[in-house]
Design brief:
Layout: H1 26-36, E1 51-54, H2 75-87, E2 90-97, E3 100-106, E4 115-116, H3 120-134, H4 162-166, H5 187-192, H6 196-202, H7 217-231, H8 235-244, E5 252-255, E6 269-271, H9 273-284, E7 288-289, E8 292-293, H10 297-303, E9 356-360, E10 364-369, E11 374-380, H11 389-398
Antiparallel strand pairs: 1-5, 2-3, 2-11, 4-6, 5-6, 7-8, 9-10, 10-11
Helix pairs in contact: 3-7, 3-8
Length: 401
């Protein structure tokens, strides 16, 4: 482990000063706010500038997966599922079973297009934290974040551990409640500002860590900063070297706050749909790919343990979240820190507790069922109000039980 050391301690953030969204260029910020409201569809990637490439397979672009017909589902059942997804603005629906692509459905999208995975990136960051621990760059999850964030050494945030950030139990100020001083939602400068490292490091705590679960984008952004300081690499370089190239993925990109600036590691990684299947298969294969152990199986197991439970001392805990990973279907308004209008709707629970998933805004989902060797991607626009995120995956799992 190499704790991050900062030379200029005079700029250490003091929590008493309070949080403010740092925006060095107000005109650029205003342009981003207005421009972000016109992004149609969400799968369009050209608007997201500047960016840094995440290099993929160094031996050349991987071939697209061949389609086979092995899955025990009738043609009519597939058509029913496809129509349901089409009615809910799905752009890509891919099913990988036993390592084989057994179904694909594209609408107004092509296999080589890149899409915004939104908060699915959070799970990649957790994978990278595990890899950093495997590499000895971070001693473990109970290390204080302040070892890499000296800006936190002189206030209550010095007690926050890396595990608190991973499990969304940091006690940091909510990013979806209006700031009393600025009347700005703290998530807005994180999403659209051009000084996001400074912004993230200035967010104060409002409660001791480990007491309650609250979904907060700042937790993952701070994990990205820790990764960079521990490794000396940019987020894109670290993701490329330790995950994207070893998985033989196509090149993608991360969205930066400014040219040569900080990547938005809480969300907005652009990649091709099939490459997400490779990520899901990594969980199925217990961290290995083509004979190479990319991340330890023990870390993947740790990611899947429910962390926000009363047994762990978390108030109002629900056993639905691990390390940046969703473990149960959830409904509107039931998750602290997720506004009801952003949540993905589920009217029924998953039929199988072994299922878990990555989720991004507007219904970007990667479902993984290791016991069935099943990986399923749904990508697209915001589903309609009667969307049930668990219906499709329950249909697939039911025929495998």
């Amino acid at each position: 482990m190499r704790p991050y050391m900062k030379d200029n301690t005079n700029q250490t953030n003091r929590q008493a000063k309070g949080f403010m969204p740092y925006l060095s260029n107000q005109v650029q910020y205003a342009q981003r706010v207005l421009g972000s409201q016109r992004i149609q569809p969400i799968t369009q990637s050209n608007w997201y500038q500047p960016r840094e490439t995440v290099l993929g397979n160094p031996a050349g672009q991987p071939a697209f997966l061949p389609l086979t017909e092995q899955f025990p589902l009738s043609t009519q059942d597939w058509q029913n599922i496809d129509q349901y997804l089409l009615n809910h603005q799905t752009r890509a629906f891919l099913v990988l079973w036993k390592g084989q692509l057994v179904h694909q459905f594209y609408h107004q999208f092509k296999p080589h297009y890149q899409f915004n995975s939104m908060s699915m990136l959070k799970t990649l960051v957790a994978l990278l934290i595990g890899i950093a621990i495997d590499q000895g760059l971070i001693a473990g999850v109970h290390v204080k974040a302040a070892e890499f964030l000296p800006e936190w050494q002189h206030d209550a945030r010095r007690d926050i551990t890396i595990e608190h950030l991973l499990s969304m139990q940091s006690g940091l100020k909510s990013d979806v409640k209006l700031d009393a001083r600025t009347w700005v939602l703290p998530v807005i400068p994180l999403y659209l500002g051009n000084e996001i490292e400074r912004t993230a490091l200035a967010l104060p705590s409002v409660a001791p860590p480990g007491q309650y679960f609250e979904y907060n984008n700042y937790n993952t952004q701070l994990l990205g900063i820790i990764l960079q300081r521990a490794s000396g690499l940019t987020a894109a370089q670290f993701l490329s070297k330790y995950l994207w190239q070893p998985l033989h993925c196509h090149s993608g990109f991360l969205w930066l706050d400014k040219p040569h600036g900080q990547a938005r590691t809480f969300g907005a990684f652009f990649a091709q749909p099939e490459d997400w299947l490779r990520v899901g298969q990594l969980f199925v294969n217990r961290g290995s790919f083509q004979g190479q152990q990319i991340v330890s199986a023990q870390w993947l197991e740790q990611m899947q343990i429910p962390r926000n439970t009363p047994a762990r001392g978390v108030m109002d805990g629900r056993a639905d979240y691990g390390y940046q990973l969703w473990l149960k279907a959830h409904d509107y308004g039931l998750i602290r820190g997720i506004p009801w209008f952003e949540a993905t709707h589920a009217t029924t629970a998953f039929h199988d507790d072994a299922l878990f998933y990555l989720e991004g805004l507007r219904g970007q989902c990667l479902f993984i069922h290791p016991h069935h060797d099943l990986v399923v991607l749904r990508m697209g626009e915001r589903p309609k109000k009667d969307w049930d995120m668990s219906w499709m995956i329950n249909q697939l799992c039911a025929v495998l039980n």
